[in-house]
Design goal:
The chain is of the alpha/beta class. Helices cover 46% and strands 16% of the residues. The protein has 31 helices and 31 strands. Strands 15, 16, 17, 18, 19, 20 and 21 form a seven-stranded mixed β-sheet that branches. A hairpin with a 3-residue loop joins β20 and β21. The longest helix is centred in the middle third of the chain and has 78 residues.
């Protein structure tokens, strides 16, 4: 919402209030359209500096948004950690499972191989028990034992050797030593073993253990314990690991007890001890055993293996592998059972290399983090965007207030400029007109006309600038009133007829019969579009033609679709021939930029028109029009075509110097076409010409509509109905245009393009059918174009006809027929050509182009000798009608400017009116108090103390009160007599629009400076007199 200063508001309301009533502000429908009367008191700076409403900020909402971002971030981090933990666990679990499987596999194989070796040692123990102890004498001696164990060593590949120690009690020592021939020695000292309860000297041994011969195995503490455990358990037992003498590898000694008799499985330890006869032992190279095993199972995923003797769990003994196990990332322990009930072993495994990083876990975790980061970024960006939008909205509100203030200032400026320029221009043009009505010589008249034309050019420029300002501000509105499109085309062509005749340019208009006679739309804006387009064409064309055509859009589309291939081919070939082909089948024979109006397309449109009903629209139906304005001018350079519709832009800087103009007309026309739901396009070829086309959407009007009684059928226009005419012209398009205008007068027309064929027709030598004979027999006129087959070639056509008649000696044909009048059609004609035409047999009257019904009717009336009756229609000058309209009328002129009052009074008195003037709205209210003798009032809008709107409203209220009072009192006073016509007379065309004037009770609108035609149009509506004037057909 816009906030204005308090002083401005007070002033605004004071201006609107009058005698307890409130007047609606002008342009209150849209932003920035409040009445600008108060703006004079409220300065522009105060408007711009007015406080801007700001939207309250929401810090809590902002805090919540940032909190949400942090919550998302923390939650995302937690989720990423969980995802990483899950996938990394799965990753490392794979390696752990692999380690477990490999470790257990190695443990099982180690146990298996150790058990095989133990079984072989046990088998040896059984063999010794059987063949050494069970036989007497013994079947096994040292040599046999050594030989056998050596030959079966492959069964014990990891044993360094085996030996048998016999149990010898102390009482038996002496006899044993004598029998063996050596002394029992201690293990470490190699000296005779000290006295003890029993001994276990080695008596049988493998050659690899020959150093153990006669050694008491029970002299070593650990070996003694090992022998005692084996004797009691009856199983193989192992020693703790130790270094082997030869290989320096870690090894263990396996000991089995050899019994002298078979024992039951559940024998007691005492029974086993008594039955023990000796001990069979073997040394295992444990390191080699494990090493060979690991080499057999070597894989890419190598592991490190440690084997421990954990009999003493607090101090495990390393049997294989490195001592340092601290750098292991993860390990697995597999239990080992070597069959020794007194010792425990285990295998610990770890991977040789650390497991690789869990890339999948890192990838998923990174993806989660990226997703969360993206969400946080989006939320943060959304938050920042919202903050920016809020800030932009605040700035926009501020700029909106400034723009509204600037819009009001601009409107006031334009209104002021319009008023301040039009007011003196009204005086200048009015006084010039009054000066021209006095007795002036030829030079003085020329000077006055030049000054008046310059003033009108300035007014046109002002109008264009104001229209552009209205379009830019969106204030332009379109009317929706019935109008005759053909009449507007005729009027526009008439406006430029003088310039085209001076240049020798062919100017023509054509409206398809399928276009409804009455349309509903804005006739003023339609006239403005056509005027701008034709005016541009006239400005930039020196030779050739200007052709205005109006068709239905659906007809154009139908023709284009049916001939697209032929047309494309013709355009492709023709575009390259523009500079070489002399004659073209166009209106004047000159090349054109768009072949839309050439004869091939024009003929298709005519056929399409004949195949369809002329008007198949219902009242209110939408009518899509296609309007084209074709010229053969200088064309538009390709470099300038992109900016041709930009305001105040022309092709180049020399254009305005050479041709004049401001470059604003096309921009306004394009905007107006778009307001009518259409579009404007163009095609242009430099040095060839331009064709501007636009589509407009209007509505079908009522067929019985009569335009304010001014468009009533002129009796002169109906006098030619039923006549027959022959048109002779070598240009197909031009002949159809001539036929179109003659048919508008009700004349039946036939067209011939070849002179010889026309001569044969007129002489009756072409074997005409009966109907055509009747037509030719009643022929009223023959119309020949001056340039029918070339420059001035049509003038000599009657001579060709006369020569042909003499040669064929046809004399009787014309005796029984009324000879038709030969009439010449010309764009321009010189006096010698006019004399030559009369000598050839043409009537004196030449129909000058552009063709239009009123001009043709007047010319045909004179040419056919239909009489010189006084013509009260559209053919006489407006001054006569205005004089009859205003003669004897009492007119009140209200204006605060003395010059304007003089100009208005002079213009009205010129036509016989009695004029009284006053300088304010209050004075006008006083003079128009009923009863009064004024027939009409011209009221200025902008006046001090009380403007024209307020004064008119007061006058209407006074009339209403007076009417009600008289009606109640006598009932004799009619409402019509109490309503005085009030016409707005203003130079402010921005705010004082016709709609605003009508809302205030005014009957019409005249903009300053007003002209004779405009004055008549307004007055004729209220005074109910014959229709308005138009320029004389014979001027």
């Amino acid at each position: 919402m816009t906030t204005y200063p308090a002083e401005a508001k007070i002033l605004f309301h004071k201006r609107l209030q009058l005698n307890g009533t409130v007047r609606k502000p002008i342009h209150a429908q849209g932003p920035g359209r409040l009445a600008v009367k108060w703006f004079r008191s409220a300065s522009f700076s105060s408007l711009v500096a007015s406080p801007v409403p700001q939207k309250a900020k929401c810090p809590g909402w902002s805090w919540n948004m940032m909190t949400l971002v942090w919550i998302f971030a923390v939650a995302g981090l937690v989720v990423a950690c969980m995802v990483y933990h899950f996938f990394s666990s799965e990753h490392y679990k794979h390696y752990e499972d692999t380690l477990v499987n490999m470790c257990d596999e190695r443990a099982r194989m180690l146990q298996h191989q150790f058990a095989v070796s133990m079984n072989h040692v046990h088998a040896l123990a059984i063999m010794v028990s059987t063949f050494h102890l069970g036989k007497y004498p013994s079947a096994i001696d040292q040599k046999t034992f050594a030989t056998y164990t050596a030959r079966t060593a492959f069964e014990r590949p990891l044993m360094t050797g085996v030996a048998y120690a016999q149990r010898v009690l102390h009482a038996e020592r002496e006899s044993f030593e004598k029998e063996q021939g050596w002394t029992i020695k201690a293990m470490h000292s190699k000296k005779p073993s000290p006295i003890q309860d029993e001994y276990a000297p080695t008596v049988l041994y493998q050659e690899t253990l020959s150093h153990l011969a006669s050694i008491d195995m029970m002299s070593g503490e650990e070996d003694r314990e090992n022998i005692l455990r084996a004797r009691v358990s009856g199983k193989g037992v192992l020693t703790s690991p130790f270094r082997l003498l030869e290989s320096n590898h870690l090894g263990v000694v396996l000991t089995f007890t050899v019994y002298n008799k078979d024992l039951l499985p559940d024998a007691t330890p005492e029974e086993r001890m008594n039955a023990a006869a000796g001990y069979l032992g073997g040394a295992f190279d444990f390191e080699s055993l494990v090493q060979n095993l690991l080499e057999q199972l070597a894989k890419k995923e190598a592991i490190i293996v440690n084997v421990y003797d954990i009999t003493n769990s607090s101090q495990p003994l390393v049997m294989y592998g490195p001592d340092d196990f601290s750098d292991a990332t993860s390990s697995h322990i597999s239990s080992l059972d070597f069959g020794d009930p007194y010792r425990s072993h285990q295998m610990r495994c770890r991977l040789a290399r650390k497991p690789p990083l869990a890339r999948l876990a890192i990838g998923f975790a990174s993806g989660v983090l990226a997703l969360v980061a993206l969400i946080c970024f989006m939320v943060y960006n959304a938050h920042m965007h919202v903050r920016k939008v809020e800030e932009d909205y605040r700035k926009m509100e501020e700029l909106k207030v400034r723009a509204e203030a600037a819009d009001i200032a601009k409107s006031q400026f334009l209104a002021t400029v319009s008023h301040e320029i039009r007011t003196p221009m009204n005086g200048v043009l009015g006084m010039l007109q009054m000066l021209m009505d006095t007795e002036l010589d030829t030079t003085q008249q020329d000077f006055a006309r030049t000054a008046q034309a310059s003033g009108k050019a300035l007014i046109t420029l002002i109008n264009e600038v104001l229209d552009q300002a209205k379009i830019e501000s969106g204030r332009i509105e379109l009317e929706a009133v019935p109008f005759d499109l053909r009449t507007i085309i005729d009027d526009v062509l008439s406006l430029f007829s003088g310039k085209t005749r001076d240049k020798g340019i062919e100017l023509a208009g054509f409206v398809s019969d399928r276009v409804p006679q009455v349309l509903v739309g804005d006739p003023g804006r339609f006239r403005q579009i056509i005027t701008n387009l034709v005016g541009n064409s006239v400005k930039f064309t020196e030779t050739g033609h200007i052709f205005v055509c109006v068709h239905l859009w659906e007809d154009i589309e139908a023709v284009r679709k049916s001939s697209i291939e032929a047309l494309s081919k013709e355009l492709t070939e023709g575009r390259s021939k523009f500079c070489s082909v002399i004659s073209f089948n166009t209106l004047s024979g000159f090349a054109v930029a768009d072949r839309q109006n050439s004869w091939d397309m024009f003929e298709l449109l005519l056929r399409n028109r004949n195949c369809k009903p002329s008007d198949n629209f219902e009242v209110g139906d939408s009518v899509q029009l296609f309007v084209s304005v074709e010229d053969t001018g200088v064309g538009i350079p390709v470099s300038a075509q992109q900016r041709i519709f930009m305001p105040f832009m022309q092709a180049d800087s020399s254009t305005s110097r050479t041709y004049g103009g401001t470059g604003i007309g096309l921009s306004i026309s394009k905007c107006l076409a778009e307001l009518m739901n259409g579009e404007m396009k163009f095609k242009s070829v430099e040095e060839v010409g331009s064709t501007f086309t636009c589509t407009l959407e209007l509505k079908k009007g009522p067929s019985n509509w009569v335009e304010d009684k001014r468009t009533m059928v002129d009796p002169l226009l109906t006098r030619f109905k039923g006549m027959r005419a022959l048109v002779i012209d070598g240009k197909h398009v031009r002949s159809e245009v001539t036929k179109y205008h003659l048919q508008r007068l009700g004349i039946q027309v036939q067209v011939y393009h070849d002179s010889r064929a026309a001569v044969q027709v007129l002489l009756g030598h072409n074997n005409l059918a009966t109907e055509e004979e009747r037509f030719m027999g009643a022929l009223d006129m023959v119309l020949v174009d001056k340039d029918a087959w070339g420059v001035s070639t049509g003038i000599s056509f009657p001579l060709s006809l006369s020569d042909a008649r003499q040669k064929s000696q046809v004399v009787g044909l014309w005796k029984f027929k009324k000879e038709p009048k030969f009439i010449l059609l010309a764009t321009s004609i010189t006096p010698p050509e006019s004399e030559k035409a009369k000598a050839m047999g043409y009537v004196e009257t030449v129909i000058m182009k552009p063709l239009r019904p009123s001009l043709m009717a007047a010319c045909l009336q004179q040419a056919l000798g239909l009489g010189n009756k006084e013509y009260h229609g559209r053919g006489l000058r407006g001054s006569t009608k205005l004089h009859s309209l205003l003669h004897g009328k009492n007119i009140l002129v209200v204006d605060d400017n003395l010059v304007n009052r003089r100009v208005a009074a002079g213009a009205l008195k010129k036509y016989g009116a009695s004029v009284e003037c006053c300088d304010s709205g209050k004075a006008a209210i006083t003079l128009l108090q009923p009863p009064h003798n004024f027939d009409a009032c011209f009221m200025d809008i902008q006046m001090p103390e009380m403007d024209g709107f307020e004064a008119t409203q007061h006058i209407r209220r006074i009339e209403e009160l007076a009417f009600q009072h008289e009606a109640c009192k006598e009932g004799s006073l009619s409402r019509h007599k109490q309503h005085v016509p009030i016409f707005a007379m203003t130079a402010d065309v921005i705010q004082a629009t016709p709609d605003e004037c009508a809302k205030c009770g005014m009957d019409g609108y005249v903009s300053k400076p007003f002209e004779e035609e405009q004055l008549y149009l307004v007055i004729a509506k209220c005074l109910e007199l014959p229709p308005n004037p138009e320029e004389s057909a014979l001027t």
